[in-house]
Design brief:
single chain, about 100 residues, mainly alpha, 4 helices, globular
Length: about 100
């Protein structure tokens, strides 16, 4: 989702998610569901997605999330995860 602030990114995981906009919270819950296997365990999750996203947006989000989740799983299965990754630090204005 475009327009994430540094504060949004700091709250992407855990209980801090509740401070994020509802649309982003729902998208993150959808990503969590896909990562856990793709079975909607919470019957209200799909309804919440439909409140915040159009059918086309749900398809696009699901495809993008599934693609990246799949790539990650392939890398792990093939043993191709790097032992270390270079870190690029981009300072935000004013820091």
């Amino acid at each position: 989702m475009a327009g994430l602030t540094e504060d949004d990114i700091a709250h992407l995981d855990g209980a801090a998610r509740t401070s994020l906009p509802a649309r982003l919270q729902v998208a993150l819950a959808w990503a969590d569901m896909l990562l856990a296997g793709g079975h909607i365990a919470d019957p209200t999750l799909e309804a919440h997605m439909r409140q915040h996203f159009s059918e086309a947006e749900i398809v696009e989000l699901t495809y993008a999330m599934g693609t990246f989740i799949g790539y990650g799983k392939q890398i792990m299965v093939l043993g191709l995860e790097p032992e270390s990754m270079p870190l690029t630090v981009v300072h935000t204005p004013g820091t």
